[in-house]
Amino acid sequence: MRQMRILLLGVPFIFAVIAVLISTVAVSGQQIGGGSSPADIVYAQPGQLVDAGGFRLNLYCMGSGSPTVVFDSGFGDWAPVWSKVQPQIAKWTRACSYDRAGAGFSDPGPMPRTSVRIAEELRTALHNAGIAGPYILVGSAYGGDNVRTFADLYMDEVAGLVLDDADPDDLEPNAMQEAAHRGHAALPSDLRNCRNLIAEHKPLPAQPSGPGQPPQTCAQQFFFRGLPEAEWSPELNAKVSEIAQTKVTMYDADASEMEQTPADEAYLQQHRRSFGSRPIRVLTSGNHGVGHLEEKPPETPKHLKYEQEITLAQARWLTLSSDSKQIFTHNSSEYIQFDEPETLINAVREVYDQARKRVAAQGH
To answer: How many domains does the chain have?
Structure first.
């Protein structure tokens, strides 16, 4: 969910032009083998519901091979955010995405929703599903906090790391980090207000959108980069919208995740564990906090300074490994997996190849 980060810049939340949405949705969601079901329909139904410690997480695992690639998504996102990259990566190794507790098709989990708890739950679910490490961890935006925490807790099970325009708040200047926390502060309350309307079966009022744009409900605004998503089939959009308009536990989980980010960042500041020679690839869009390029704010000195600081903070992850690289996209929002999927796929492939070489070298 990138509107949280847009708010930090003082930029109005603007959705993509509706005509672009309609035309792109019409051509997205490629058909499987010429049949009637779109390829992304797999994410419109539960995958494998696996015990994660007294409740179930929803996993989608495809392909075979090792290391296994494991994806964790940003605020307000769940497994469908990987629909353009996971099936491609699954052509050459096993790839698993999942819905965090409370989101998508997963059961609600215990509170509060800290990154440590999220990492522990993910590992429990993977092991209970028979998916042993090593893992290549891929984290987008807030998901970067979770996969870095996972690596700190279970480094022996980690083969490599790909950070997909991940949030580097714990490595930003103090003033910038504090501004981010102030920007987050009102969002849990907004989420809970929307949640209460849903719980009471009350209509969701239309919210103002960008100039000339149709109004949006809170359920459309809070999740992913705004619903509907142009990169998905109508079938997947319908299911995601249904979940957003009915699943109150998702609002509870997201509100708690936001409230816990200062503690999560403090944990990461205190646990900067070396990856040794495990490969790390850091993807940087230069448009952090921007969900659609059509919404990109004016290049004011303030905004340019913000993006420069994000780029520098993300670069600090390079010191964690002797095999690290920062990769810059050409023309992407922070949703690189939607706008430049090949850039992300290639980064994962690099980490996969390097991880396998590392294992082979250790075997001699």
So the answer is: 1
The whole-number pLDDT of residue 363 equals 75
38: helix, strand or coil: strand
Q: What sign does the CA torsion over 315, 317, 323, 329 have? A: negative
211: which residues sit within 8 A by CB, 6+ positions away?
14
Domain with 162, as residue range(s), is 3-362
Left if phi > 0, otherwise alpha if psi is -120 to 50, otherwise beta: which for 165? Answer: left
* CA distances (Å), origin 285, targets 84, 217, 260: 17, 28, 25
> Which of 280, 344, 56, 354 has its CA nearest to residue 272?
280
Per-residue pLDDT reduced to its tens digit, 47-102: 999 999 999 999 999 999 999 999 999 999 999 999 999 999 999 999 999 999 99
pLDDT at 25: 34
Distance CA 318, CA 357 (A): 20
Which CATH number fits the domain that encloses residue 217? 3.40.50.1820
Are the CB atoms for 232 and 240 separated by under 8 Å? yes
Q: What pLDDT sits at residue 187?
A: 94
The CB density around residue 186, as the number of other CB atoms within 10 Å, is 12
* DSSP output for 264-330: HHHHHHH-----BT--EEEEE-S-TT-SSGGGPPP--HHHHHHHHHHHHHHHGGGGGBSSEEEEE-S
C-beta of residue 242 within 8 angstroms of C-beta of residue 45: no
